[in-house]
Amino acid sequence: MKVACVGGGPAGLYFSILMKRQDPSHDITVYERNPAGSTYGWGVTYWSALLDRLRAGDPESARAIREHSVSWHQGVAHVGDFTTVQPGDRGFGIGRRQMLALLAERAASLGVRLAFEQEVTEPPAADLVVAADGVHSALREQHAGHFGTEIASGRNVYAWLGTTRVFTSFTFAFVATDHGWIWCYGYPFSATRSTCVIECSPTTWRGLGLDRADEAEGLNLLEKLFAAPLDGHPLIGREGSDGPAQWLTFRTVTNRAWHRGDLVLLGDAAHTTHYSIGAGTTLALEDAISLAGALRDAPDVPSALARYERERRAALVPVQSAARYSARWYEDLPRYMALPPAQMFALLGQRHSPLLPHLPPRLYYRLDRAAGRLEAVRRFKRWAGPRMARTLHARSRTR
Length: 399
What we know:
By secondary structure, the chain is of the alpha/beta class. Helix content is 43%, strand content 24%. It contains 15 helices and 16 strands. The radius of gyration is 22 Å and the shape is globular.
């Protein structure tokens, strides 16, 4: 099979690796518009379940990724002088640039052609064209009517930054200002660097003057606001030729269809989920695993693409729901910041719940504590939550 994969992110590279391992005779080219080694962003996160799946697909690349990752076992949250520590599942961080370099090296060793600095706007001639070209997918936009692409922008603004402060846990910090709350998510991705995502409402962003500040001025202000969690370390904008750090609004991408003829969407071209649940890279890699598996087992390409779409749509339902409610929790942050810090942090951990936005926070907190003791209340939450979520989602789609 001749395969053209447009986009050299984690999804496209890992898909090419899996296809070559399944059949070395596949003719596979990965087209990437950026130069080799050039990418945006800092570190990405994943959890042990993904590592197990990567080992099953290609032990060599899984081993390389694990060896270049750092890990943590708990979450830490700060509000003013109050700090709480919560145990959690083992998480991993790796530099995005490092991950792409490892996957590109592995793909090339298997015979995949890597064509860097190749801007592809028309589907190349191939038996299968994989559109792994991100949120702004040019190949998807050529057939936007067929794919039924919808893009919804969140309310809050955020900046994806780096820091020399090496966090030992996944860290949240909430800072009150005269213009509202501003907060960060921090996690390590190497022995010398961490990712630090800063988020706030547009009102706070403008009130602090971040909309008018240049990069140096903005970083200086943020360093002062987050001096305690940063422990005196600097924040860093984008490195190299990536240009200055940007303030963005998160865009949630959904598509009515994921394939058309021999063209199929993969990763962010097909779907995005809010960064606050840390699942973007994991979902992209799981797309690659699913698509490669469908192409291996199905009798023909159309059947494989249909199976891939069914599998991934079903798998994404709970994740997209969690991401939607997580984003909403942060957009409604003032609703929760009046609570005592211990209660606020408890609801931070419950932010994926479809019930939480519709109950007074203190009442939800009491119900949640009771649910830990009473099986009847736990059953009610399990019964009511999904039903309320489906009802509200249906109503929103009919407006």
